[in-house]
## 1
Amino acid sequence: MNDNLYRQYHTYLKLEKSLSDNSVQAYEQDLRKLRDYCAAHGLDPVHAGFDDLQAFVYDTFAQAGTNPRTQSRILSGIHSFYRFLLYNHYIDSDPSELLQMPKMDQRIPTVLTVEEIDAIIDAIDLSKPEGQRNRAIIEMLYGSGLRVSELVGLKLSNMYLAEGYMLIEGKGSKQRLVPISPVAQEQFGYWLQDRNRLTINPGHEDYAFLNHNGHQLTRAMIFTIIRRLCAAAGIQKTVSPHTLRHSFATHLLQNGADLRIIQQLLGHEDITTTEIYTHVSVQDLRNAILLYHPANRQ
């Protein structure tokens, strides 16, 4: 497989598939695994057959004990590569077509209670220079259900505070309009006052959230901020920025929001992705038994 073909595949992922930079990197990393395997066995990935790919799958997954989610991601990358080859007439048939995706156990996401959200907010020290920024970050993640990548990439030019919404660029560069809650609007306004006092690094002027050096915040920094706040609030759950997104969706659903609306707010292409939020808590199950089972009626 020559480098020119590799560059063509990169362009295909970026322009024709409209994948995010993170997804492109993941797909290319998975393809390198296939290239390395084929090189070790004297094969060209372009001319690999189903048996070769099946052997690659066994060697990569079974022996390494790769979990089903990682397996699924790698197989998605392999399928994408061979669809690209087929689409561009490098091959006549897709040898990956019969490779079976692993069965995925549906995991119920970790969700914070409203009280835990309040505890995180109460743990923010507003006397510190970063305090108001961190308050605005929490309100944006929980109040609008943003992904962490969407938060760090959020630009002032895409925020319409007076109208109460923002233009979000999600996965695959797909755009959607997301409302900003009144609380988030207020807290972000306070952060803007602090932000205006920063010396902003050239090229970072339009990013909504910055560090003390005037640079765009990183995903890793958002994780660190949330981890520290949870520790200060005494929350024992494993919490990430995505936990706030899960909490946003779950609390909307519990309070009567339509699943289709939640799908649009989260930017899910498929409603089945959103349906994981239809889980019910153990407390809900317990209450149902207490309320409706005849043995508990008086």
Note: The mean pLDDT is 85.
## 2
Amino acid sequence: MKKLAIVILNWNGADMMRQYLPSVLKNSVGDVIVADNASTDGSVQMLQQEFPEVPVIVLEENFGFAEGYNRALVQLPDYEYYLLLNSDVEIRQKEWDAPLLKYMDAHPNCAACQPKLLSLRQPSTVNCQLSTVNWFEYAGAAGGFLDKYGYPFCRGRVFDTIEPDEGQYDDIVPLLWGTGAALMVRASDWRESGGLDARFFAHMEEIDLCWRLRTMGKSIVCISESKAYHLGGATLNQGNPRKTFLNFRNNLLMLYKNLPDAELKSVMRTRRFLDYLAALQFLLKGDTKNFSAVFKARHAFYDLLPDFEKDRRHIQQLRKNERVPERVNFSLLWQYYVKGKKKFSELTVDSL
């Protein structure tokens, strides 16, 4: 059996791959493979001409992030691990994926892990000790958690507050989710869990997958010895109404699928109030498109509910623990906006 397939899912990202793919090829021990989601920008031709050593899986249409990976990975059955990697990730560390492999090999109950995710957009700074400091990246930082009502946050990023990486989150601790920008998954656990939910199309699908894995009793961690630098926002920018729609809809679907029975009604009732409050905030800012996107997301969620009833029953049957502890028992909105706790370390002192 082969060890590791590093799979980059591409859609119209020829320029991104031309810029960042060389760093992945130069610094990885795993086999680098590109899966193309029916790009129309000449991505496949560019890869064949400029990177002939890279195998390309050509998909017949744009299946989105979730189903694109599902269809690509099913064509790679003889690998022990998969590493899902965004096309806008730069690797600066030689054999960056080796620490991830080492940890996974030594911990068979660990289903997935991520590297420390640092920002390509935020320039590095020099601290008072005259050492270079990088900033965490929004999409995953040093690993993710959820609050009681489904709001994700990370070690190094709470809502829009992003911290510099000064080694404060280098310890290995249990996570609820790892970032889809650079996520290593054990292939057997990927298959047992069913992979990514294709109905999500994009956004929240990796959190949903990791939550399922944690419910099954598997562990998720961040290995800070490994680092990846992420540009972020390459497909849909923050504030894009399409992104708002997908984030709200998929977050609700994820909650419906994964919440324990005892919490389902109360959490979803509170989320309805919080979603309408978020919509009102968009309206007060004059952002009518995102205001509308929140309502469309909730309507789409209710329309899709019958399709997810079977999934919910199946997940409850697989449940090894009533409540995953990394879905913390507090409201992140209250901690952040009312109590003024802007950093993960501040949350851990009083709330976790």
Note: The radius of gyration is 20 Å.
